[in-house]
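Hi support team,

I'm opening this ticket because the web form for multi-chain structure prediction keeps timing out on my end. I have pasted the exact lines I submitted so you can reproduce it. The total is 934 residues across two entries, so I didn't expect it to be a heavy job. Is there a limit I'm missing, or should I split the entries? Thanks in advance, R.K.
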Amino acid sequence: MRIPFPFSAIVGQDEMKRAILLTAVDPTIGGVLILGHRGTAKSTAVRALPALLPPMMVVDGCRYGCDPKASAGRLCADCQTQVSAGHKLRAHKAPVPVVDLPLGATEDRVVGALDLERALTRGEKAYEPGLLARANRGYLYVDEINLLEDHLVDLLLDVAATGENVVEREGISVRHPARFVLVGSGNPEEGDLRPQLLDRFGLSVEVTTTTDLDQRVEVIKRRDAYDRDPEGFSAQWAEADTEARRHVERARKKVDTLPVPDAVLRSAAELCSAVGTDGVRGELALLRGARALAAYDGARQVTPHHLRVIAPSALRHRLRRNVLDDVGSTVRVTRAVTDLLGD
Amino acid sequence: MHETVASPLDARTQAELAAAILAIDPVGYGGAVVRAPRADIADAWVSMVRSLLAEGTPVARLPISIPDDRLLGGLDLAMTLATGRPVVERGLLARTDGGLVILPCAERASTALVARLTSVLDTQRTAPRGPFAGDPAPARVAVVALDEGDGVDECTAAALTDRLAFHLALTPEIGRESATLFSATDLAAARRVFAQVEINPARIVTLVTVAAAFGIDSLRAVAFTARVARGAAALDGRTHVSDADCQVAAALVLGPRATRLPATADDSREEEPPPPPPDSAESGTDRDENPSPAEPQALEDLMIQAMQATLPIGLTIEAPTHTARHGGSGGRSGDDRTGGLRGRQVGTRRGDPRGGGRLDLLETLRAAAPWQRLRPPIAGQEGRVLVRVRPDDFRIRRLIEPAGTTAIFVVDASGSAALHRMAEAKGAVELLLAEAYSRRDEVGLIAFRGTAAEVLLPPTRAIAAAKRALAALPGGGGTPLASAIDRAREQVIQARRTGNDTIVVFLTDARANIARDGTPGRPQAEADALTSATALRMLGSTTVLIDTSPRPSETAQRMAEAMGARYVALPRTDAQGIHAAVSAAMPRPSA
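Hello R.K., no limit was hit. The queue was backed up. Here is the completed structure from your submission:
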């Protein structure tokens, strides 16, 4: 298996990198949808995540990667039993999981199913966790999510929203925590995602190939260096990745207590009604995104500047599409931002 | 043309070089997409590659109808039932680890297959199908996609081709299958030096510049160019990339991917589109606004020169890249429709066959297999039931039916319309016909003049017939609009029966003056037309009304509104404009 291309070595694509980093700061922002053409480092950025994220503490032997410090309601049944019995949960450090969900995956594989080995050899009914269990507390990545069957996308978004996977099947009745950030990527020219699904992603990013010659040259140089010597190249960028990781760690400590002034709350609400997003999802994503950004920037409180930066990512996928209006969603959001918050 | 510029590579040399460079490190190059007029020509090239591969490199053919468990690995049903323990079978990709996968009829591969292949190309491993199928297996493969499509618009999905370094168009002249330029020994030597070959940063700048000038956006393509240049150097036993290597790489990787021709630096309104500017650096006086130093400029010219042989036909200068169709988003337009009862199977899902789905027996058995020991025999049936199947096991087929589009053109050939830019209207219809053809849509033609409308051509894929009917269309007479709308409505209903989506395009000034019963009289004719329009609207088909009157007319707008049509005024636009308006309104079948 190949060593992933380092996150920090990705040239440009700042909005995408920012969106991904912010979900690391505050996973409750919700999933990230990355739309763009081929060859724009979408997959590369996601596959580089494990090396970038701070490792986490995981209960020994837990199949769902429970957090030893989690409150009772957030533990899986096994860990819960141990705690109730008065045992102390032993834990070890583990990397944050970034799980790939291949397009061909069946529902069984995603949600988990009967443990075949045990059923056949011992005649026992036991549950074998699926990809959702593996992604708990981490990331679930679906490349070409626009080509994934709708019922699977629905299922993923449901679980991502509730943080719990409920399996009911002949004799198996399991619920386990499945809190993860869903990252979907795709090329919109090859098929659209249903609007109902779009709305359920926290942030969305549109990536385009850079037309700047110097940037393009830099991309090719780094790619060439990486292709020739993946280990050496990764070592060169290890320090930059570590720096980004420290940033994320600092921001995580601050994000929950960061004050959001009333004026900013009001601006967020005005912005959402100005661009006409339905429901509160947009407002929540906007505020959480702005707060995570403020924390990442080391700011003392959330300011209109943070709203301005995050607004396109948080809102562009929630606008109703007007067939006669050719103006792109991003432009409409930017206009509203300029009208309300100034340049 | 300048004398110092090397002549472009001939087709045979291109094919051999591509085969040899690919054979150095197939996995690193992702593979190739090969287009040939006959299957045996593509096979000859594949044999050439095989003869140059390192000994023991696995090669496998991948039928595009391959089920997931054969491709990615999965549970072996027979062995599992026989042995009573799960037996996992490796998939084709994992079995071909380190080698070459040949994909015939690549242009017909489903989006699902393409997605699986691109994922494997990216991650170099397969995730087996099903929850019981064990761990991901390494699958470092190169894909050789044999594209047997018949035109620019029927081609292998771009998501796949973008990840394959070589895009080859083979011609019958490439002839014999054995390589003449390189031997297996040369390749062994090339593999030894390949990792050490370096490419000068200045040359990378030139590669990027040339790619940008030809409208190649994907940075993967540019990265492949650098890698192919390194391969060319390795073949020659050198550890530094030379200008000639860059030329080879430009011809093999960049040329076929070009989406436009670069504008010349000194005169963007150049009269003769092809060839691209081969001015050499020596004639530098007319290039003073170009800040590039002389040497990269020379290399740039060499590369552009080398690309000439492989450029796709029909490129235009500075066409906006996003409209360039070459290597378009791939395959058939529109998404196929799932969930129906007809069509090709794309998988299964849990479900009740009594609900109208078709049972997939094999998958149902597969689902039931692991439970056999757990399920107690039903009293009185011990030993009589071989496999205990419960409703929960039922798997029904997910079928996909190709969702076609039927475009119905309703052309006003009355006297009033004939005066008003009939020629442009015909031109627009011709453009749309050409596009409909490439999308494999069906096209029907209704003309109306005199006292009634006439179905000139029932919906057909034979576009040539539609063109002839259109060309022969005479003009003059009254405008029986109501009758025309009724005919269109009948065609829509008929097309719906075959499961197609429909689009109706009216080209008319909407000045109805013949009533439904064929009698003249404007008020009655208009009233009838509005009634018919409302009836058409009820069908919910996509409709476009192109107003051919000299000024946008209120009548036509009212008519468009009544039929729920998108209104396009012709005076503001030309044949291209109409074409664009209709294309934008083309229905996209919903899943």
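A quick check on our side: Confidence is low (pLDDT under 50) at residues 322-326 of chain A. Let us know if the file doesn't open in your viewer.
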